[in-house]
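Field: sequence (string)
Field: structure_tokens (string)

Example rows 1 and 2, in order.
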Amino acid sequence: MSSPSPRSGYTLPVFATAAAVAALRYLQGERELESVELNLIEPAITVTIPIEQVSYIRAGMALAIARSDPGDNLDLTRHTPVWGVVEWRESEENGKRDNPIEIEAGEGIGRGENGRGNPGIHRYARQLLQANLSTCLKGDRAIRTTLILPEGRRLAQRTSLPAFGVVDGLSLLGTTGISQPLSAPGQLAEFRTILQEKARKFDRLVFCLGENGLSLAQQKGINPEQLVKTANWLGPMLAEAGIQQVKEILLWGYHGKLIKLAGGIFHTHHDLADGRLEILTAYCGKLGIPSHLLPELLNCGTVQNGLQILRDLERESGIPWVNRIYTDIAEEINRRAERYIYKQSQQHVIVNSVLFDRDRIITIATAPF
């Protein structure tokens, strides 16, 4: 008896847009708003999104609340409230008509650190908001839309967003409105099917943990047909590669994820297993980093911060600490992955690794690509 397919849901930009649209419609006189219809653009379909609450805040300003539903996915934003606040504003400034729809990031929406700007509301989210709000906006009016994630700051502490320069909240990420259940068990069967198809064509495959790695690999000229998404299912996917008698695998991922393999962690979802800083600190101690830096590394918050500590030490000492330590980590990743594959499939597969940092700069590569 086959198991049911995992249920897809919607990405955060969809719920933010639904809340904003409901608030606008309330401002324009609609009172019975249990749901709103949205054009997702990507894909080009219309969907109905429930609205939990909607009310005036004051004259000319309304608030609506939607609640995130990512489908059958290990997504920490599940059920989190998403607020959209819409208020009327002047549509004429300096004698010229400006954009009638102004979009702002409120509490719980991440911002960039170190002068990187505000990445919290990304291109697809803005496109979705503009398209759906403009359809609803009546007459010669202009609005200011503020998006709020009341639990965003707290939830962001459980993500790797700080490693990519996003602080104080979550980002409205994504290039589509559909949230595919990449971490749900049912998705693993689909990943395996894709791997099996590609293994029939290629002896060498490139495993990408996430979209960031996937796009960077393509930028570096790797054949897209050889790329395999793994999400956090590295262990089962490595085993499947052995079963399919793939001869070589190149692991391609953010160093804060792949480093877990050096500690024998083969499911990389942060809710299931972590230990990244402990692993980095252990390898630094093994290779003779000054001992007074070990507590700092262990408590530095993110692997990216740890990498910066090593880079600073390298500049001060003239010793290539980053290359030494990351080479050792990457080689251990390769060894452990090869042993894991053999244990699961009794097949010898060559494994190499490419690790990149927050700025998508490759830190170490153990083989040409």
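Row 2 begins here:
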Amino acid sequence: MSYDIDFFYTLKGIDTLMEGLLVTLQLSLTSIVIGVSLGFVVALMVMSPSKLLSWPATSFIEIFRCTPALIQIVWIFYCVPMLFNVFLDPIVMGVLALSLNLIAFNAEAYRAAIQAIPKAQLDASVALGLNKIQTNVYVVLPQAIRLALPVLVTNGISIFQQSALVAIVAIEDLMYMGKMLSTETYRPIETFTVVALIYFAIALPAMYISSQLEKRLKVA
């Protein structure tokens, strides 16, 4: 059986793929913002001397780091509504699933960065009369972001790639629209090649930025 490569019909439906790309970017960027913000909070909870804070945070991290992202997405989409009678917009559910995964990985990146901050700086903040919250906001957070930035960028790229998994629950992202277009045009090779190139075109510059940030931080 021969198969003639022809991108005509795939490129003709590029608008369909762009619609899916917008959803993918919406899911990814929203999840990244939430993951970067709450990841720091969870890291502080893990490092808290209070077991009421550290144990739940540690359990949360281990659950989301040690289970496949696909299982997490399916569980949140199908089990949460059944167990808690909560029905949310599919995009919101997608953001929730991706954000929780990213928070867990970012929390570990922040934790390692916080541990790398010299203790003398924390002692200096106490000497200056800063309370715990002020120390975390003005001393710990800026340095933690700086030290963890390459890992945070890498995690952001990873969640952008993993966002393709939401296609399994019928969210009309880039992967889902690519699947629909391939079915309509009977051109799976061409369609998924274009889809892969779109992911590549966005992820490659981000990975380059991550490597440059890492090099600059090593020099500094």
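free_text_note (row 2): The mean pLDDT is 91.
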